[in-house]
Design goal:
431 residues; 2 domains; 16-stranded antiparallel barrel; 19 strands
Length: 431
């Protein structure tokens, strides 16, 4: 009876630890296997502590059977307690680890003036693991498809089914020991405010590398970021600073208004490209260095940013109006970028949908072209135009999105070219 009670108790403890997380079939099978293993161990302990015969007990001058049984029970209790501690420690550690990720299948049609039309199918897959090291410290690790492009994890299908690349996407720590504050370091997700997640300054896939701090008490917020564009002095160290601050307002009973400003400093004048080919400046102006004979950036980027986002409801659905503005004080011309747009609805729950539109103009030296939206105008700066989108959610974690870019590129040349792009996405998320 005692053995049965111990086993029932162990089973209850294991199930109670796993129940809050909605135990899966695999987890139930694993727990059953663990209990079966413990049953075998208990049986073995009983056999080891059971006298072989009454004669042997007397001959050995052993204690009465009741005493032996008691001693065996004590050993069994210790063995079970040790096993329970080990199992609970493993379950406890698992509770402090979280997986999430996403997968996207995309079809693209690109029509660029002066170039042959292009059709391609692309995929993107990302997996992210975060673990609690202590109540105030988390570490994270993530992988993503794609090459080493800092603003894209897409992989183009083809090559006869050839293997595709997977690279380090995230590797960071996050300390939250102060109220409303996070300190991060390593390679981490971009936490800077982007109204309606726009890519005027930063592509959604860009992962800063360095350290930063973010503070948000619900009403006011402030973000600071120091990021390496090039962290090896052998290659010429390039370090950038970004700062943002703003506040959230409640407007009436249901509307919200976000206002903010920022300052960014990228000292790139005289530097060669930090990524890509030696002549690839992603729309930014460049000059020939008379000493080295290399092409280098023409300007530094000291940017002043202002942004706003207004959210309310119309016809029972959410509406977002947003704008973003940036000017580079170091450029002699082509120094301004801005966008404004609206989104109606929210494709989050099953059967929900949204419609969106925005207009963007990003002059050649308004911002660092390498880090901007990789889809608008084909990536980089020196472009303008409209973007239309619509999304329908088949499930809470599965949606279909259509996006159409009606853009012009190479504005600074004086002879801009048309650039049209259609994207059809199937998006899946898990957590």
């Amino acid at each position: 009876m005692q053995k049965l009670a111990i086993l029932l108790g162990l089973g209850f403890l294991c199930f109670s630890q796993a129940a809050p997380a909605q135990v899966s079939e695999e987890e139930i099978r694993a727990l059953r296997a663990q209990i079966e293993m413990l049953t075998q161990r208990l049986d073995e302990l009983e056999r080891q502590n059971r006298p072989s015969s009454p004669q042997a007990e007397v001959a050995a001058g052993a204690a009465p059977a009741a005493t032996l049984a008691e001693s065996a029970d004590e050993k069994i209790d210790r063995a079970v307690a040790t096993e329970v501690d080990e199992q609970m420690a493993a379950l406890s550690w698992a509770e402090h680890m979280r997986w999430n990720g996403d997968f996207r299948y995309r079809y693209e049609n690109i029509q660029a003036q002066g170039e042959e039309d292009r059709n391609r199918s692309r995929i993107r897959a990302r997996a992210h693991l975060e673990a609690d090291v202590s109540p105030t410290v988390q570490v994270g690790f993530g992988l993503a498809t794609g090459g080493d492009d800092p603003v894209s994890s897409n992989v183009t299908l083809g090559g006869g089914g050839s293997k595709k690349e997977i690279n380090l996407d995230l590797a960071y720590f996050d300390w939250s020991g102060l109220a409303d504050t996070h300190v991060v370091g390593g390679k981490f997700e971009n936490y800077l405010v982007r109204p309606d997640k726009n890519g005027l300054l930063w592509d959604a896939d860009w992962r800063p590398e360095g350290a930063g701090i973010t503070w948000n008490n619900g009403r006011f917020f402030a973000h600071g970021l120091g990021t390496w564009l090039e962290g090896d002095s052998r290659n010429g160290s390039e370090f950038a600073w970004v700062a943002q601050a703003g506040m959230n307002f409640a407007v009436g009973d249901a509307a919200k208004l976000l206002l903010g400003a920022g300052y960014n400093q990228f000292d790139l004048a005289g530097a060669t490209p930090v990524y890509g080919d030696p002549d690839d400046f992603y729309g930014n102006s460049y000059v020939l260095d008379p000493i080295t004979g290399e092409l280098v950036f023409a300007y530094d980027y000291r940017q002043i940013q202002a942004f706003a986002e207004y959210a309310f409801r119309l016809g029972g659905r959410p509406v977002v109006l947003f704008t973003d503005y940036v000017i580079n004080t170091e450029a002699d011309a082509n120094d301004t970028g801005y966008l404004f747009g609206a989104r109606y609805g929210a494709a989050k729950a099953r059967g929900s949908w949204d419609l969106g539109w925005f207009y963007e103009k990003l002059e050649a030296d308004a911002t660092v072209g390498l880090l901007t939206d990789s889809d608008f105008g084909g990536g980089g700066s020196d472009s303008k135009g409209h973007v239309f989108s619509g999304t329908y959610a088949f499930h809470d974690n599965w949606n279909f999105k259509l996006t159409y870019f009606l853009n012009e590129i190479e504005l600074a040349s004086g002879s801009p070219r048309d650039f049209d792009k259609l994207m059809l996405d199937l998006n899946f998320k898990y957590k």
